[in-house]
Design goal:
The structure is a homodimer. Chain A has helices spanning about 5-20, 50-60, 70, 80-90, 105-115, 130-145, 185-195, 285-295, 305-325, 355-365, 385-405, 405-410; strands at about 35, 95-100, 125, 150-155, 170-175, 200-205, 220-225, 240-245, 335, 345-350, 365, 370, 375-380. With about 425 residues, chain A is α/β, with parallel strands linked by helices. Chain A has 2 domains: about 5-45 and about 305-410, Aspartate Aminotransferase, domain 1 (Alpha-Beta Complex); about 75-300, Aspartate Aminotransferase, domain 2. Chains A, B: It is an enzyme of class 3 (hydrolase).
């Protein structure tokens, strides 16, 4: 097998790793050997801190402290505590973020609250290309808000600004597209929504932990996001909600469980909402998942978001360059924006046999994923992805594509497509 | 300190433990030494199986398998698998129960689905004395179902049957009262609801794992329940939903996230519901919490529910007898039904200084809990509670009450009131 990638790229990658200000963070992760993991945008890997946090929760807090740990281990305050740890990663104040439930459930709550703040307006504007759970939930939120409420679905390429008129209550957007990695202009689109009198809800699933987000600086109204991708909170980790301080005074959200009550342990029959971001809580929080996320977040304490973004851009650019200068270039069409600043922390390519190619690549020790019908998706997590990883990944990808090794692999079923 | 409890009760308890067909299960639990834990109705304790299950999930499935574990460890099927393990504990077929989210979130989904099945009817009938989260959620579910929908709150003692007329869509009841342990007649009230043309939703939070439930035999329409009480699934463990087969054909629930889609990994913009109980799923499931619950449930494989109920009744009766025949009897008024068959698996007493008494009791190694204003609450979990435990607990309770040791303890704050 001939070399598919210029040897110079390997040297440059090694030099970049040696100079990487985030290089030390990789040791915080427990990564399988001989695996290049470029699917942290689907499920972030295990950290030693997360393992230790879960053990302490199970053995000590639950096992020894039993029900008393609601107080002694402050499980009661956990949703706030984890929210406050996520806050700096999205450019929010600690008291404006809370951790709870799943992104789907949280989106329903936030859309309900946002619609309630725009009475007399009946439309949610959203993109049909969005991650499907957002579509389904938005439909339900509109339908349950009133008979005239509905969602306007924008087709790919349709101008978002042009849809914003005086009937729009909420503009709901996902910041980074899960297929292509294309990133929206958060500041500009939020301004456009506000200019039309609408509120904006951002889904940060593919942004938090990978982009130098600034929700407060962008005047974002509400945001939700995911704990199990770049935050490495573990499979199905709880999600989070951001609400701008100006909106926290009178939150009317639809899932007012007892944890949303101002005094849950009074067990009072009448509902009175907590003040602040805690109004978005619902039922008893899942402590195990939340403590795991909390522990995983502990490694972020001294991380500079600008370093994250810089490295993410550099990793993506190196990967694109490596593929573009390889023998496989004619067979792999870039599905992501060519301009790095318009990408999140992933790069995607079209290939007609994407499923087979990805299976072969996984067999070769490079884990990315595919999205139907033809997208190969590679995520870069600046805390553990090395420059050498992306060059090696490009090399193996190019070899598989050029050698046509994917056809036989395509016949084999299985693999991770989540 | 004089003996407060007849010595004969200790002998009888020891004999009962020696003959207990469930006696062997206690070894499955990792209980703190020198602690009598009678608060499993708040948070069930750790099992060795749960610890091992969590470790395997973290270290092997997540740590080594990474995103591939959605398939290789069948995380995708976990919600169904855990539901099927809960099913026999509530008298349901395996395919009629699913595990997901919190009880609050699940109640919202189930109420939404039930209301949709009774168009033209606008009322939910429920008890004001219910656990508050059910009240708050029912209010929201009614409000979001349509402008004429509302909840009728029955005062304590008000006849449920008398409220059931042709406008009632749903009778929502909690099977076992969280304060008093009073248990409703599931078969009779379900029949009454059906006779009025209404559907019934049962909250099994304080029943599942402690009562010989038979939701299918009682023709229950929908039920929800909790994973972290008698099922020992861990703090904030995911909850479950039961739906009768007859209702699974056209479920219209409000939280249709991508996991409720018939083909979630097609990422299709149009929503098409899963067939069957999976229609109640919402977002990406919290794997850690669900795997912990799954492991905790593994110890139930050979448990006979009739043994559970028999022992639960016997434990409760012994506790009541021990208190009633103690020197403290005049100071502790039974708050639970006197007739054992009308109780769930807990016994409560009124005491004017309940908070202080419980703090003193916890300091003496007996963990129960209190509910405002004056209820001392003791839960019996037949898999690990021994007869000797309840006699010792009654002995220490009587000593505290008779000696008046609770007044100084009342000044100290803290303790578990969850």
């Amino acid at each position: 097998m001939a070399a598919r990638i210029d040897a110079d790229l390997f040297s440059r990658a090694k030099a970049a790793d040696a100079a990487d200000p985030l290089g030390g963070y990789r040791a915080a992760f427990d990564l399988p050997v001989d695996t290049i993991y470029l699917d942290g945008n689907s499920l972030g890997p295990l950290t030693h801190a997360a393992r230790d946090g879960v053990s302490a929760t199970v053995d000590t807090e639950w096992g020894r402290g039993l029900v008393g740990s609601w107080n002694t281990a402050d499980w009661i305050g956990l949703a706030y505590r984890v929210g406050a740890m996520i806050a700096p990663l999205i450019g929010a104040a600690p008291e404006d973020v809370i951790c709870c439930d799943s992104t789907s459930v949280n989106l329903y709550k936030v859309l309900g609250a946002a619609l309630a703040k725009r009475p007399g307006r009946h439309r949610i504007v959203a993109e049909r290309d969005n991650f499907p759970t957002d579509l389904y939930i938005a439909d339900q939120a509109a339908r349950r808000a009133g008979p005239a409420h509905h969602v306007q679905w924008l087709a790919p390429g349709q101008m978002i600004e042009a849809a914003l008129d005086e009937d729009v209550a909420v503009l709901m957007l996902t910041h980074v597209d899960y297929r292509t990695g294309a990133m929206h202009d958060m500041a500009g689109l939020t301004r456009a929504a506000h200019a039309a009198g609408a509120l904006v809800v951002w889904d940060l699933a593919h942004s938090a932990g990978a982009i130098d987000l600034d929700v407060a600086g962008c005047n974002v109204d509400f945001a939700i996001g995911c704990g199990y991708k770049y935050l490495n909170g573990g499979p199905g980790a709880p999600a989070f909600i951001y609400a701008a301080p100006v909106h926290q005074a009178d939150i009317e959200q639809p899932l007012t469980g007892w944890f949303a009550h101002a005094a849950p342990f009074d067990f009072s029959p009448g509902f009175e909402s907590r003040a602040g971001i805690g109004a978005f809580l619902t039922g008893t929080p899942g402590i195990l998942g939340m403590r795991c996320l909390e522990a995983a977040l502990s490694i972020w304490r001294d991380v500079e978001l600008s370093d994250i973004r810089d490295k993410s851009l550099a990793l993506g650019a190196l990967f694109v360059e490596a593929v573009a200068t390889s023998d496989a270039a004619p067979m792999l069409a870039l599905a992501s924006p060519r301009e790095p600043s318009r990408r999140g922390s992933q790069v995607s390519f079209h290939h007609p046999a994407a499923h087979g190619v990805m299976q072969a690549l996984i067999a070769d020790g490079v884990i990315g994923d595919m999205r139907a019908p033809d997208i190969l998706r590679f995520g870069f997590a600046p805390l553990y992805t090395r420059y050498i990883d992306v060059v090696r990944a490009a090399d193996r990808l190019a070899a598989i594509v050029v050698d046509g090794r994917f056809e036989s692999a395509a016949a084999a079923d299985g693999g991770a497509v989540t």
